[in-house]
Every structure is written in C-alpha cells, then in structure tokens.
Design goal:
By secondary structure, this protein is of the alpha+beta class. The chain is 43% helix and 23% strand. The radius of gyration is 28 Å and the shape is globular.
C-alpha cells in the first residue's frame, strides 16, 4: 500500500469526466480532461490512478503540446507523466484516455444487483476515485467537476451535477451534466441503473428527488419527510444555505459503506432509505431517519468544509454522528435517540479500553490506514466528545462557534484545531487544551469517586487514570480535562453540579443540603468515561436506581460495573447483584442492556456444563414478565413492543424457554402468510427463535421467502426478517448450508458480514464458520468490501482462546491491509475473554448453585 503523497507542482481546477459504461460490461472506458494550474515549474506531473490502462495522454499549455512518457507506480497508486520539457507557471490542460475494470468489491466503480434492481455504482471514499479516473485524489485538492456519461438506452444516470442535456443514438444515450461547485475527489459520484425517479420536490428552494428500483418509490415517502425536516434545520443551524443546487438520494442495489454523502447525490443501502410504514420496526425506522440526517449534515460539515487530510476524518464523521442525533431528537423526542446512542457509546468505550485502540486524531499514511479509520472510535467516541463539550459549554456558545468555523472555512479545508479555536472564541476561553487530550491521545479515564467528609460539608475525592480492560496501568501517564456533570439527591431534592477534573486526584466540594442520599457522577451518561463508585456510594445508589436515575444512567451503571469486572477490580457476584437490582426495569434501553450482557455471559463466560443452570437462573429471574410478551402482540407503544421483543428473545434463546420457542414457531408461520399480521418489532425475533430449533425444511422455507420478497421488491425490513434469521439455524449441518449461501449469490453482497458475524459469535457455529472463512478467504475478502472486512476480522475476537495462534498465523500469512489493527484487537479480545472466563466462570457457577 502507498505511503505516498502527491507533489504540489500542479493543482487541479476542473475535471471533465467522459465515461462510457454499462451494467452489461465488466469494463468501462472514458476520457478525463483535467484543467490545472502550474504553481512551480516542473517536468513531471503526478496523478493518482489504480488499475487503469491508458490509451492516449496529451498535455497542453499555451497551445503547445508536450511529448509525454508514462510511468506507472502501482505501489504508490500513481501515474507519473514525464514531459519533454518543463511546464511554465500558469494554466495547463491534460487529456487522458483510459479503460478500467469494474471492482469485484464495492469500491471504485462496481456492479450491484438486488433482485430485479441492477446498477453500476461508484464509491470513492476514502481513496477510490483513482480507480475510476486519474486524479489528484487528496481531500484538500478540490476542483469543479462535470460528468458526461454514455450508457445503454433505458437506464437512468445520477451524478453530482444537475442534468443538462440528453443525446440519444440507436446504440447509446449520452447524459450530460452541469459543472459542480468545488469538491474533493472522494465526493465524486456516478450511478447508472434501472432506477425510477420521484417527482421533484422543492425543499428550501432546493430540487430534491429520490431514486429507487422499479415500483419502490412509495417506500421513499418517509425519507422525503425526514429530508423536509432536516434540510431547513441545518440551514438555520449552520447559518449557511444549502450550496449544491440539487439533492438526489439514491437507493442503490448494494453498498458496503451503508450510505455515502456524495455532493448532491447521496447513495444509500436500500434498507437505510426505503421502508413500508406499517411493517417497519421502530429500530429500522429510527436508523433510516438518523442515516439520512447524518448524510445531509455532511453537505455542510465535510463537503462544504472538508478536513485537510484523513487524520482529521473525525471532523466529518464525529460531527455528522452528533448533529444527526440532535436534529432527529428535536423532531421526534419520543424516539429517544440519545438513549439509543448510549448503546453505541458503550461499544466505543469497550473498543477504546483495548490496548490496540487509537486516538480520534490518527496519523494516516496509506489508503488502507484511511479506510480502517472508519470505525467506532472515529464516529461514536468522536460524537460523544462533541456532545460532552456542547453539554459543558452550553448549546448557544457551541452553535455560535460552529457557525464561525463554517463561515471562515467554507469551500475550503480545515483541521481540528480550527474547530476548537472557533469554539473557544465563542466560549471566550481556550478550548484547545481541554479538548486536545480527548482528541490526540487514546483511551479515556476511569473516574473513581468517594466521599471523604460528610459533616457540615460534603467533599468528594475524585481521581482519574486511564481505563484498561486488562487492569494493568499504562506505561505512559495520562490525564484528561474531564467535564463532569453530577446529579445527586439530598434533603433539598435532586440537584446538578458541574466541575472540571484535570488532575490525577482532586477534592471537590459538593453543595449538599443536609444529607447526601445518592450520587450519579455522570449525569445523563453524557460523559465519555467510566465511573467507579466506592462501595458506600454504590450501596446508596442501588436501592433507588430505578426511581432516581434516568434510563441512560441505569444502563451506564450496569455497564460500568461490568467494566470493573473485566479489569478484576470487581467480581461477577457484585455485577449479578447490580443486574438483579435492575431486573424489574421496564424500560427498553435497560432491558436490552441486561439481555445483551446475559447473552454474552452465556456465550463466553459460563462453562458448557453450567449453561443449563444459567438458563434456569435467567428463566427464574424474568419468568414473571412473560405477560408483557403476550401484550406485545398489540402494544400500547413502540418502546413497549421493543421491550417485549427483547424479553422474548432473552427468555427463548439465552433462557431456553421451550414454551416461547413453540410460540415463536407458530408466530413465524403466521408471518409467512400474513406479514402485516404480526407486530413489526417482534417479527425479526420470532423468526430468529423459530430458526434455533429449525430443520432443513424451515431453512429452505426461510431462504425461499426471502428470495421471493426480494424479487417482488418488498420493503427491505420485510426481506431482512428472513435474511437475518439465517445465522440462527444452528442444528446439525444447517450452519454449513447457510455458509454455502454466502458463496452462491443468495446472500446480497452488502449483507455478507451481517450473516457471518453472528455465526462467528455463537458457540455452536463459530469454529465451523472460521474454518469456512479460511477455506474461502480469497473469495470472501473482496466480496465483503474494504470497510466490511475490518469489522469481520475484529469479530474473530469472539473465537475461543485455543484458536488464537491459528488465527494469528492465518491472518499473518493472508494479510488484509485494511484490517491490520482489527487483527490486533481480535487477538487482544480473545485473550481478555479467556482471562475473564478463567477468573469468573467457576465463581459464577458456584454462585448459581447457591441460588438454584
């Protein structure tokens, strides 16, 4: 992989890309005309290009043509044009004819198919524009673009530009588009397919359209509703009008990245844009709204103002993550998106507690390193730090700083320091020292809180150290400026107190009236840190947790206590006491956290002989709540339905409740004949549970129903009920049958990882799945995609420790550059889980025997 940055002798000003391509051909061809500016005399021009073949290249300056010698440097993904004489300062024009091959993965230009929907689709982020046309493929080298696309009659073409003219001939149709404003190459976009288009809709004066496969446009109505909400909201928030004249949103037939914020032409995986209102789950509907808000936010933060280099990727992704949640939460507060975000934040906290994490700001040298940076640290930790900063500064000052940043850097590039200076100016203080240690260093603090005096005045001793799941102290001493917002109860009621912790240990005076009854040191669980409450504070809090703490705080309490078990600072018995204290919680967020953690215990902590005992304990703990599941068939609210579905899955899977498994089979049969006859939030669960004891006949029925719905063009959620049930077929040789579907085209390419990952996590199927991956590695890697393969490799961390050496050996001899850090994390997770299993598994077994 390339460690190479281009020289800056010639800077781009405008690309004219003439592309000839068809879904019927594996190759494409075209001509790129690049108008540039020579800023220092040179006899060599460097461009990025990967897997392109060149037929003719001309270089002209002031009506003079230069003789060109072409040198290809595959290791640097560049082409070097050596000229017969040096270029002078001023304008220069390059004309390059080339051919290329469609990518077998989902990057560059690739063929995508989903049922009857077919298309060629581009994905240029991070460094894949160079696989479609020769260019200066670095984010700060912005230029204008104009697309001219020749393809087959009857197909629709969408690019960044506004459609200008269509020329029809008997053999092809040429689609010409208007010039765009200046953009980075990674935001260039083209798709050619059998799309249908919605009528133009004017939102804030902007022409907005949706594109989807035949007969699917009705499924984009909710997306139009979201767009109509967020587009004007962003214009007001940023203080800048939408810049790109039109906004097309396209449901493409297959997409590795989920969605991509291409300027004026956003591409989505179909499941993140399309839905059928009465059949969609609450989770899926919220994901669609959040994704649309995220991608539209990029049209300002990322597209209009772009990071200078990939090491500041978090500027794009963390901000879009944070503000998408903010705008949707204001629109639909009953959806509780900030509560849902706690689950994502918990995953980021776990990832950031590993030794092989990385800072939010990470030095990037190669394309593979840039691709691997699209991870939960960049998105979710980055978003959490922004939320924490806004919460401490106040919304008004934070927004004022954002507007200042946008005005100063619009149509240009910026760094993280530019953002902090703008925010600091609005806050009338320097934010750089406070925020920089969250951005520039890996990890996060464990904040330990204890009461040291409680007479007339209440003092807290607050200490911090870097949290590590290994329990070992890091060799490099680290501290953070921790903006703590505490909630507590005293004789005067419930109060909030803010303080900034910047030292290893500080004493904080808490303004308590009378007696301190309880303390929550991370109000609303907004802070990105773990909390260690000393025993007296924990004992005060547990009895009142369900009454005094909001759901996000109760989830945080549960997960903080589990984190202490991971490090050896606490034990499984203490965590089980916390779990029991929260086991009657009716809130879906807390129940999902309980179910997820109990499932994890079942999968990698409980010994195999003790699994029936553990299942019996879970049944006994939650059995009295079965009536809530029956209620879910006609729930009073979406949140109640999600709670009931979670409880159903916990009892039927982890607790092995046979009655619920039989009920799941009956409900699954009913769904097949009447998809609308079952509560949408329960449908996915009953199909997965029915699969657990399912036989070959049920598996064949599941595959057949999925394919039928896909071919018919049913809404994605109706299809995925069946698709995502496939990893739950664990009986006999059925997992091998499911794995074979990953090779024959049955499983859509962008869904492969979502089938393989659950099979890797489950005890019954993980070793067979790993052997399958080894056998078919050369096929699976390119099909999963450059972003997906990193996440799949990381999932190998769920394998038993006994397989660690084999995993390391295999991936060392079959390396994937985009997954180098993922492998290190996987190996670390295998070691960590074995350590927890060895330390806590026997203790948990004894604890269970004492209570059953």
């Amino acid at each position: 992989m390339s460690h190479y940055r281009l020289s800056r002798h010639v800077l781009p000003q405008h690309y004219e890309i003439m592309l000839s391509a068809s879904p019927k051909r594996k190759f494409f061809s075209g001509t790129t005309i690049l108008n540039g500016q020579v800023v220092s005399p040179t006899q060599r021009i460097e461009l990025h290009a990967r897997n392109l073949k060149f037929q003719a290249i001309t270089v002209c300056q002031r009506n003079k043509k230069y003789t060109v010698k072409t040198l290809i440097h595959p290791e640097n993904e560049t082409v070097e044009l050596v000229l017969s004489r040096a270029l002078e300062l001023g304008p220069v024009t390059l004309s390059i004819q080339m051919t290329g091959r469609l990518d077998v993965g989902m990057h560059g230009l690739y063929f995508a198919k989903d049922g009857r929907d077919i298309a060629l689709v581009s994905q240029c982020e991070a460094t894949d524009a160079r696989a479609i046309f020769p260019c200066l493929d670095e984010p700060d080298l912005k230029a204008t673009f104009r697309w001219i696309v020749r393809t087959d009659p009857g197909l629709t073409v969408v690019t960044n530009g506004i459609a200008e003219k269509t020329i029809r001939t008997p053999k092809y149709v040429e689609h010409r588009f208007k010039k765009t404003p200046v953009i980075s190459t990674y935001l260039a976009a083209v798709t050619i397919g059998n799309y249908h288009s919605s009528p133009r809709q004017r939102i804030s004066g902007i022409s907005c359209r949706f594109f989807a496969g035949p007969h699917k446009l009705a499924q984009a109505r909710f997306a139009a509703e979201v767009t109509a909400q967020v587009l004007p909201w962003y214009e007001k928030y940023f203080g800048l009008k939408y810049h790109y004249k039109k906004l097309d949103q396209v449901a493409v037939p297959g997409f590795d990245a989920g969605a991509m914020e291409n300027v004026g032409a956003i591409f989505y995986r179909a499941s993140l844009l399309l839905m059928q209102p009465k059949s969609v789950s609450w989770v899926a509907q919220k994901a669609i709204a959040e994704t649309i808000a995220h991608e539209i936010a990029h049209q300002w933060f990322g597209n209009r103002v772009t990071m200078k280099w990939w090491d500041d990727l978090w500027l794009n992704e963390a901000f879009a993550t944070w503000i998408a949640l903010k705008v949707i939460d204001e629109w639909r507060p009953q959806w509780r998106l900030w509560d849902d975000y706690q689950e994502e934040k918990e995953q980021a906290l776990f990832a950031d507690a590993l030794m092989h994490t990385h800072p939010i700001y990470t030095s990037i040298k190669t394309p593979a390193e840039a691709t691997e940076l699209f991870d939960i640290i960049t998105y979710s930790k980055g978003g959490a730090v922004l939320r924490m900063t806004e919460n401490f500064l106040g919304e008004g000052r934070f927004r004022s700083g954002i507007q200042r940043y946008m005005r100063r850097h619009k149509d240009s590039n910026a760094t993280g320091d530019d953002l902090w200076r703008a925010l600091g100016f609005s806050a009338r203080s320097s934010l750089v020292p406070m925020v920089k240690n969250w951005i520039m260093q890996p990890g996060f603090p464990l904040v330990t809180v204890e009461v040291v005096t409680q007479k007339n005045k209440t003092k807290l001793r607050v200490s911090q150290e870097r949290f590590s799941v290994t329990g070992k102290r890091h060799p490099r001493h680290q501290t953070w400026h921790v903006p703590m917002v505490m909630r507590y109860g005293d004789d005067g009621g419930t109060k909030t107190f803010k303080t900034l912790i910047s030292q290893t240990t500080q004493t904080v005076m808490l303004p308590v009236r009378g007696v301190l009854h309880w303390l929550q040191p991370n109000a609303d669980a907004i802070g990105f840190y773990r909390v260690h409450l000393k025993q007296n504070l924990l004992h005060q809090l547990l009895p009142v947790a369900t009454q005094q703490l909001v759901p996000a705080e109760r989830l945080s309490l549960l997960e903080d206590q589990w984190a202490l078990v991971q490090t050896g600072r606490s034990d499984i018995e203490q965590w089980m006491r916390v779990m029991i204290a929260l086991s009657d919680d009716r809130d879906y967020l807390v129940l999902r956290a309980l179910a997820s953690r109990l499932s994890s215990l079942d999968q990698y902590v409980v010994s195999e002989p003790d699994r029936p005992l553990f299942a019996a304990f879970v049944r006994r703990t939650f059995q009295s709540r079965i009536e809530e599941i029956n209620f879910a068939l006609s729930p009073s609210s979406e949140s109640n339905a999600v709670s009931a579905a979670t409880l159903f899955e916990l009892l039927a899977d982890t607790a092995q409740h046979q009655g619920l498994r039989r009920q799941a089979t009956e409900l699954a049969d009913h769904e097949a004949s009447s998809p609308a006859g079952i509560e949408p939030n329960l449908a996915h669960v009953v199909l997965r549970i029915a699969a657990l004891a399912g036989d070959q006949k049920r598996l064949e029925h599941t595959v057949r129903t999925f394919l039928k719905r896909k071919q018919r063009g049913d809404a994605p959620d109706l299809q995925q009920r069946y698709l995502h049930a496939l990893p739950s077929f664990i009986s006999g040789k059925l997992p091998e049958t499911v794995l074979a579907l990953c090779l024959d085209g049955t499983i859509p390419q962008d869904q492969l990882r979502l089938i393989l990952a659950p099979l890797l996590r489950r005890r019954e199927t993980q070793q067979r799945t790993y052997q399958f991956l080894k056998k078919h590695w050369s096929t699976i890697v390119p099909r999963v995609g450059a972003m997906g393969i990193s996440r799949l490799v990381e999932t190998l961390g769920a394998l038993p420790f006994s397989m660690r050496n084999d995993v390391e050996k295999f991936l060392t001899t079959h390396p994937v550059a985009e997954a180098s850090r993922a492998l290190k994390k996987a190996l670390e997770m295998m070691k960590l889980r074995e350590k927890i299993r060895a330390r806590e598994g026997k203790r948990l077994g004894l604890w269970l025997r004492e209570r059953l």
